[in-house]
């Protein structure tokens, strides 16, 4: 078996996929997420290297990536304020999507880079002993057979 051409992602209210769905132009996946520089987690000042982002990926009706908005909101030095800024930015972007309806989506693999980090749905089967696995980064949502839209974190 292989990774599906379009990976289903289930909408879960009040959880990690509560800002996904469809709009007049296609599908979307929004999130507030963070990155951490490689190796920084072992440092006592790790919080300076954890960067928070508002992210909105848009896809056409067939799940092909169209574009991404990725906005840096701050670091974990001021984590609550950084998260609040990211959530406010994402809310504005979502409010601007015409015909927005939160719900399940199905999208193709894609990736974009911002600030040296990969954002997207990527094939990480090589990290799973060749077992089919797609990972939504940097959100760390893992998708596997039976491709039912559910994920592991």
Q: Estimate percent helicity.
A: 10-25%
Following the backbone from N to C, one meets helices and strands in this order, namely EEEEEHEEEEEE
Quaternary organization? single chain
Strand order of the largest sheet: 5-4-3-2-6
Protein name: Formate hydrogenlyase regulatory protein HycA
Can you give a write-up of this model?
- This is Formate hydrogenlyase regulatory protein HycA.
- The structure is a single chain.
- With 153 residues, this protein is mainly beta.
- The chain contains one helix and eleven strands, in the order E-E-E-E-E-H-E-E-E-E-E-E.
- A hairpin with a 5-residue loop joins strand 4 and strand 5.
- The radius of gyration is 16 Å and the shape is globular.
- It starts with 6 loop residues before the first strand and ends in a 10-residue tail after the last strand.
List its salient traits.
11 strands; mainly beta; 153 residues; five-stranded antiparallel beta sheet; globular; four-stranded antiparallel beta sheet; 11% helix
In short:
With 153 residues, this protein is mostly beta strands. It is built from 1 helix and 11 strands; from the N terminus they run βββββαββββββ.
What topology emerges from the helices and strands here?
Elements: E1 7-9, E2 20-23, E3 26-36, E4 50-59, E5 65-75, H1 79-95, E6 101-102, E7 105-107, E8 110-114, E9 117-123, E10 134-137, E11 141-143
Protein name: Formate hydrogenlyase regulatory protein HycA
């Amino acid at each position: 078996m292989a990774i599906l051409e379009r990976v289903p992602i289930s909408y879960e209210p009040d959880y990690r996929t509560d800002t996904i769905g469809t709009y007049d132009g296609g599908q979307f996946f929004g999130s507030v997420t963070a990155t951490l520089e490689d190796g920084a987690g072992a440092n006592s000042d790790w919080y300076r290297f954890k960067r928070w982002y508002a992210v909105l990926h848009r896809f056409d009706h067939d799940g092909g990536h169209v574009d991404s908005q990725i906005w840096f909101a701050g670091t974990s030095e001021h984590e609550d304020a950084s998260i609040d800024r990211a959530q406010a930015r994402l809310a504005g972007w979502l409010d601007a999507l015409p015909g927005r309806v939160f719900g399940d989506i199905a999208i193709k693999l894609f990736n974009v880079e911002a600030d040296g980090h990969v954002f997207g749905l990527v094939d990480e089967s090589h990290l799973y002993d060749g077992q089919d696995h797609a990972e939504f980064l940097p959100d760390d949502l893992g998708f596997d057979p039976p491709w039912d839209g559910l994920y592991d974190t």
